Amino acid sequence: MERIRPLFLSFFILCSFVSLAQTSDSTISGPSIRAAHRIWKETKFYMGDEIGYTPQEVLRLKFLDTIPSLYRMKIPPRDVNKDFYFKFHVANDMDSAGHYYFLPGFFMDEIDLYKQIDGDTTIQTIVSGSPLKNQYQGVVDFTMQANEKATIVVKMKFIRATVNALEPRIIQPYFVPILLTSLRNTNKLNQVITYITAGVLLMMIFYSLAVYFLNSSKEFILYCGHALFLSILFFFKAYLFRWPSAFNYFFESYFDFVIQSTSFYFFLFFLRKFTESKEKYPVIEKILLADQVFTVVGILVFSYLYFFTDSFIGLNQVEMIIKYSWSITAACFIVFAIIKKQQLLSLIAMGHFLLLVSVLFSLYLISSDKRFGSRVDPLLNDSLFYYEMGVVCELIFFLIALAFKNRQDIIASATEKERLLLAHERNQLEKQIAIIEAQQQERNRISADMHDELGSGVTAIRLLSELVKAKMKGDALPEVGRISSSANDLINKMNTIIWTMKSSNDSIDNLAAYIRSYALEFLENTSIDCFFKYPPVIPGIELSGEKRRNIFLCVKETLNNTVKHAEATQVVITMDVGDVLILTLKDNGVGLKKEEIRQFGNGIINMRKRMESIDGHFEIYEDGGTVTVLSLAI
What's the alpha-carbon Rg for the chain, to the nearest Å? Predict the structure, then answer.
């Protein structure tokens, strides 16, 4: 064991010297690069304002020994407009020329590459202009001759965006497409999450369109616009990740903000319509409308600065102001919902709160120099990830709020339909009552006219015929007697019609009294005694004139048959009143003989038809005499 310890210590010291020797030598050996080699340790760094140094002046700049770790993750917004310089040494100790590619990072708008061969004072310009013009966009190439040592100086200018980063590499030609593909897939998990978020928003687009076409809810067209632009934003963020193309440069520096602002504009518009803020919440309506106008003005100012100026600071400030205005609007909405304590607003406000927290943290990562570092998963350093999570949380609470609102709308719709139905039924009932009242008034008028006009005339005819008979004594013509008899019958029928038509007689107790009065009067001059079995108290249940008339005529026909054919000495009229009105007329005559049915068969048929016309029932049978039963549900 004691022999092993000195050997281990010697090995550790030797490895330390080898490591020091490798780090102290800042010259990069081109032939030793097998595929790609990160050169941030061997690269000196300088950042300055846009002065336009000559290559000779660049070589005399005070370069830092290493690239600051911050710039390897992202370029702070305050430094995006500045010029960045690299300087490193390359050696080709081979007997043949070597061809290499250089990737400075993402995303370069302009790049100049100079080479100064050791021992030579002249500086060669290898590349100048946009890196998008090269075979591999974003990558520049240079050649080292056999046994050549040189100092490479790179001058770079970034696009006006917050996604720039420095990741200098020297790459072998065969490995360039592989490396570019690999770098695009570095944050694969981030891209998958972004694609999923875009897919969720796409489903919300279809859902919004379905709700619009089914319910004609115009506010869902506005939400469809919000989800459409937001899904486009997320799709391009994932699809164009680290893709050095002209469209991606335009997207990252300008178009992504315009898409996001347009999406939020539609969302503010939707929120106003969905919450009905104009009618219900005037304060929040003014805040949302003001932010809509501010968003449109922000897009116009941002567009002017992008197309007509070269400054990124102004662009970034306008973008941050607009985004913070959205956050302030969300905060105002949350406070308003807390004050109002309205459930629909509270659900939307909860989603807004989670979105607000995620947006503020995302803005902090964009504008701050501090991040979690390279030791944590790249997902946690991605500002877009937090924004996506906020959007998903806001979407979840929006769906809950939508379900709640739909439930409220269904209840309100059902209540309104019920109210309209009740109002319609009430109107119909009032119309029916008015019609019945008009009919009753007309019946009363006709009965009064018949009583006053026809009644007096017929009575006069009867009296005159009786006077004629009295004056003629025994010489009276038989026609005069028939006139008197017909007038008397006509008076009785007319009285029955008048009784039927008067609305004040529309009750069972009145029917019972009228039948009693008529039966006694009709049988007064006969040998038939009439008895009544009525309930002690007959309820005043309403019974229409048509029903009273048909029941009375059936009773009249029965009494007439009894007098003519029954040879009876007694008639008993029984009335039972319950759910069904039952009138029973029973005599003690000879009963119903089959040979006599034909004799007054038409009367029986007419009585049955009369009862059926008022939904009643007629029955006649023999039981120690003739029994006639009239029944009617009341």
Answer: 54
630 burial (CB, 10 Å; 0-12 / 13-18 / 19+) is buried
List, for the chain, all residue ranges whose pLDDT scores fall below the cut of 70. Answer: 1-25, 367-378, 443-444, 447-460, 462, 464, 466, 468-471, 473-477, 479-481, 484, 501-504, 593-601
Q: Is 154 helix (H, G, I), strand (E, B) or coil?
A: strand
Closest CA to 387 of 271, 256, 246: 256
Contact (CB, 8 A) for 252 and 107: yes
Could you count the other beta carbons within 10 Å of the beta carbon of residue 471? Answer: 9
* Token pair listed for 614: 């008022």
Indicate the burial class of 593 (C-beta count within 10 angstroms; 0-12, 13-18, 19 or more): exposed
> Closest Cα partner for 156 from 111, 202, 93, 219?
111
- Compute CA 238 distance to the chain's CA centroid, rounded to the nearest angstrom: 30
pLDDT at 5: 41
- Alpha helices for 373-477 (secondary structure H): 383-449, 455-472
> What's the sign of the alpha-carbon dihedral 305, 309, 313, 316?
positive
The answer to whether residues 115 and 142 touch, using CB atoms and an 8 Å cutoff, is yes
Q: Closest Cα to residue 573, out of 617, 518, 621, 516?
A: 516
- Residue 24's pLDDT is 36
Q: pLDDT by residue (tens digit) across 517-575?
A: 889 988 888 889 999 999 888 888 888 888 988 998 899 889 988 888 888 899 999 99
User: Residue 81 and residue 75: Cα distance in Å, rounded?
Assistant: 10
Exposure on the CB side of residue 93, measured as CA atoms within 13 A: 6
- Considering the entire predicted model, what is its pTM? 0.65
3-state secondary structure (DSSP) of residue 365: helix
Q: Which helix (H) or strand (E) holds 212?
A: helix 188-215
- Please tell me whether residue 505 adopts helix, strand or coil conformation: helix
Distance (Å, whole) CA 180 – CA 175 = 9
Token match 């008048």: residue? 498
Distance, CA of 346 to CA of 333 (rounded, Å)? 9
Enumerate residues 6+ apart whose C-beta is below 8 A from 201: 227, 228, 230, 231, 234, 391, 395
Q: How far is CA 410 from the centre of its chain?
A: 11
232 and 255 Cβ atoms separated by less than 8 Å:
no
Strands 570-577 and 529-533: parallel
Contact 390, 400 (CB under 8 A): no
Answer whether 572's CB lies under 8 Å from 524's CB: no
Interstrand relation of 626-633 and 580-587 (parallel, antiparallel or unpaired) = antiparallel
Question: Mind listing the pLDDT tens digit for each residue in 579-624?
Answer: 899 999 999 988 876 555 555 567 888 899 999 999 999 999 888 8
pLDDT of residue 176: 93
